[in-house]
């Protein structure tokens, strides 16, 4: 029996949700990519050729590739918050590019650590050039991010503001490393606690989103109070986004997510629904779930059974509740802020989208 392509968890996505995200990213996309290329194109030799491959700009032989690249959510958030606080977003482009480079540095290393051979339908960097060269390219991308961030001085930002932006980026990177450490540590555990899971996603997902919104506000000339509020907006947005992602990894519609229903269960991931279910399960239910998740290959019938057990234990409802709670928290962080009205509306749309998205 094939697993159901169940409807996506949570309330239906508002019709303008994905369109709003696309509009936000498209507004800044060309400028972000130009800034990234300015950082990399002046360096024609390896390991920078490997970095361009990872970013989706070139194939393995160095030939240009069209229509590839990341979603650019983090740099777009940075520029959006800069503009929302009254700043000139163009002057924040070096920070936006640095955030995207840090994000991709973590992806290169994640692929090595997880032994992932594919990312978005392409061979991962390490699977083409080997682990050692991938690690070296990732390290180079980390250093390039720092150098790119310092170009804020060329855009007229005072030294103190640039140093504070660097501190925020470095702190986020440390949190990312903490989150990845916990994620790797949890792979060997049959069950992890709510607290461990939340600590992990605070690092792996929320930290860089919080830095993106906080740095954007800082570079827009916001007060410390507004910067802190937008940092909190990004943190809560990241938590909502990750919990929602975990729900889609179990109950998402393949036509919308591009992944089969129950894909995270097949991978044995201790995502949020699994964490909740294992905490609530009876001894027999817990043993049954752990047995299924430990299988190297789960049958369709096993996936259907596991999905049903998770739902019976309330894991889906709890995940929906928590995603909405963090999305509401993100929206609440915006209350009372003196922001550009149009950009404030877009930030509120982003909060709703994090809890309602289907892909």
Order of helices and strands: HHHHEEHHHHHHHHHHHH
Number of helices: 16
Spans of at least 5 consecutive residues with low confidence: 1-15
**DSSP, total strands:** 2
How much of the sequence lies in strands comes to under 5%
N-to-C CA distance: 25 Å
Overall morphology = globular
* Largest sheet: number of strands, sense, barrel closure: 2 strands, antiparallel
Overall helicity: 55-70%
What's the alpha carbon Rg, rounded to whole Å? 21 Å
Class computed from helices, strands and strand pairing: mainly alpha
Mean pLDDT: 92
- Going across the major beta sheet, what is the strand order? 1-2
How does this structure look, described?
Helix 9 runs parallel beside helix 16. The chain has a two-stranded antiparallel ribbon with strand order 1-2. The N terminus is likely disordered. It has 359 residues and is an all-alpha fold. The longest helix is centred in the middle third of the chain and has 28 residues. A hairpin with a 2-residue loop joins strand 1 and strand 2. It starts with 16 loop residues before the first helix and ends with a helix. The protein has 16 helices and two strands.
